[in-house]
Amino acid sequence: MSRRIALFAVAGAVALGSAGAVALAYAGDQPPALAHSTARYTAPHGGQDGSLAFSTEVTASSGVKSLKVLAWPAKSGLATKRPTAKEMAEVESAHCKPAGADSVRCVYSAAVTAADAASSPHGSWHVAVLATAGDGTTTLDTKAADFTVR
Questions:
Q1: Average pLDDT for 81-110
Q2: Which residue(s) pair with 97 in the sheet?
Q3: What are the two backbone dihedrals, phi and then psi, of residue 56, each rounded to the nearest 5 degrees?
Q4: CA distance 75 to 77
Q5: Which residue from 65, 66, 68, 71 is spatially nearest to 39, judged by alpha carbons?
Q6: What's the pLDDT score for residue 93?
Q7: Is the dihedral angle over the CA atoms 116, 109, 85, 33 positive or is it negative?
Q8: Which is deepest, 72, 113, 118, 129, by most CB within 10 Å?
Q9: What φ, ψ does residue 42 adopt, rounded to 5°?
Q10: pLDDT digits (tens, 9 = 90+) for 45-93
């Protein structure tokens, strides 16, 4: 092999190695990713409480520190001014369990009494979530899932 070809081969290998290192470093800085988010609302009936159940899978290379959950009616002031990360930091947390190397499965549930249902707006609702990774990066999804109150 000529000296010139060997030099180009070494230079190419160094460039590819550097690009791979940058890609790995960049991947480590990614905010949490949400997947498979679902919400289920069951109205109270026959003297029994109803419920709201939300679940999602969160992946973050630095681990998942928390997941905050807020249900909000589509026909409300939040429709024009959606919840902010600062506001979401104050709401209830979901319970998360490991679901893989960098993933957790998070579940949030709340009882819905007859009084709650009577005072809640009927129609479309959204679930907002704030996922916080171990390194402090966050992902805010103000419409992670939808459900209907009848």
A1: 96
A2: 105
A3: -160, 160
A4: 7
A5: 71
A6: 98
A7: negative
A8: 129
A9: -125, 120
A10: 999 999 999 999 999 999 999 999 999 999 999 999 999 999 999 999 9
Tokens of 35: 């997947």
What pLDDT score was predicted for residue 13?
A: 42
How many Cβ atoms sit within 10 Å of the Cβ of residue 68?
23
At 18, the pLDDT band (50, 70, 90 cuts) reads very low
Q: What is the mean pLDDT of the chain?
A: 87
Output the CA–CA distances (angstroms, integers) from residue 99 to 39, 133, 141, in the order listed: 19, 15, 21
